[in-house]
Design brief:
alpha/beta, 11 helices, six-stranded parallel sheet, 217 residues, globular, 6 strands
Length: 217
């Protein structure tokens, strides 16, 4: 997988590069500010971009702005955001167009190399990987009709889907059989109007629709 890493702290940036390369991924560029990020994404067209939120020149939300600009220029670009903070508005914007993988991890809640690599690979493949705290923040922003159509259990399940868990993993978390989870997910797809024949794509579309509706409230 070809990856652009955008992180302003040298030691962390170098560490991310070494970690990704240790798992046989190719880091095509490692940059430290917004403009360099935009240039790297335009030049290299990576499979996924791993982007910090607070970067030069303003050290506020430059990384997220770069991610959004890059996705407008190249719809479907997969982006994994790394942050110490939950920027709710921008998280919703990243989810809004429903194209390309999206991830949002909090730096102080990534405890294992495998956890991070799995998130990168899932997002690069077009899936989602959202920290539970990010999911909770978006869901607490409000409620609209698509959310009201889901039962409490269905809301639990789709929140776990947003974290990137499989049906089997969700079943283990909720102490339910994989068959039961499959029935719940089918109900979720129906209520959200997701009709794709591709089950993996249906999961992504359901998560994006759900989180987009939750953040719009």
């Amino acid at each position: 997988m070809r990856i652009v890493v955008a992180e302003d702290l040298y030691l962390l940036r170098d560490g991310l590069v070494r970690l990704l390369e240790a798992y046989d991924h190719e880091v095509v560029a490692a940059v430290g500010d917004k403009e360099a990020t935009l240039r790297a994404l335009a030049e290299h067209r990576p499979d996924v971009a791993v982007i910090d939120v607070r970067m030069p020149p303003t050290y506020t939300d430059d990384g997220l702005q770069a991610a959004l600009e890059a996705r407008r220029a190249r719809p479907g670009l997969s982006v994994l955001v790394l942050s110490q903070h939950i920027e709710q508005l921008y998280a919703r914007e990243l989810l809004a167009d429903g194209r390309g993988g999206v991830g949002y991890l909090l730096k102080d809640r990534v405890f294992e190399a495998e956890q991070f690599i799995e998130a990168v690979e899932r997002v690069g493949a077009g899936g989602t990987s959202l920290d539970p705290a990010v999911v909770a923040k978006i869901l607490n922003a409000g409620s609209t009709s698509p959310l009201d159509a889901l039962t409490g259990r269905e809301r639990e399940i789709i929140a776990l889907m947003a974290e990137g868990l499989s049906n089997s993993a969700i079943g283990q978390r909720l102490f339910l059989s994989e068959g039961s989870i499959s029935k719940y997910t089918t109900s979720i797809f129906t209520k959200l109007g997701i009709t794709s024949d591709d089950n993996s794509n249906r999961r992504v579309l359901a998560v994006l629709a759900f989180l987009g509706a939750a953040g719009a409230g």
